[in-house]
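testing teh design pipeline on a random one, pls ignore if ur not involved
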């Protein structure tokens, strides 16, 4: 079931690249941009996350934290984060439960891969309510970052 604006964001507990458990509920009081991306080290995913890196000051100024989530292992994500100098948490949804809870899940992806996160962007406000939701069917498309920023500006 797809999540929509006004829904309570499903809580999750996932491990980051430092092997620390990150709980969405711990971000109450801050706005959070939750980005699901299919696979580390791929062209569009790298471009997407580097765009967020390059615009980190804007998101910080909007009282927003960024959480990137994929089904990659924490070890793969750790190498990806280091190589791209990403200043935000990358979280492993290796068991695919969070992507499914957010409706951001491909049953079947390219090359016969099963269970990959769909490229998606969610803005979760300080109270844990979804204020923006975009789940893309094409992994080659990028989220509408102008809409994400406009949503944050309105909070």
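output:
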């Amino acid at each position: 079931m797809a999540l929509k604006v006004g829904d309570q964001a499903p809580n999750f507990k996932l491990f980051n690249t430092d092997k620390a458990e990150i709980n969405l509920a711990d971000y109450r009081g801050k706005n959070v941009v939750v980005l699901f991306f299919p696979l580390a080290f791929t062209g569009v995913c790298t471009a997407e996350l580097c765009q967020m890196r390059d615009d980190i000051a804007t998101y910080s100024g909007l009282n927003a934290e960024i959480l990137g989530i994929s089904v990659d292992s924490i070890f793969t994500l750790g190498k990806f984060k280091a190589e791209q100098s990403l200043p935000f948490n990358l979280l492993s949804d290796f068991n695919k439960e969070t992507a499914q809870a957010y409706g951001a899940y491909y049953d079947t992806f390219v090359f016969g891969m099963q269970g990959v996160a769909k490229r998606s962007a969610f803005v979760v406000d300080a109270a844990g309510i979804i204020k923006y939701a975009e789940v893309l069917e094409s992994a080659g498309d990028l989220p509408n970052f102008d809409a994400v920023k406009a949503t944050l500006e309105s909070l």
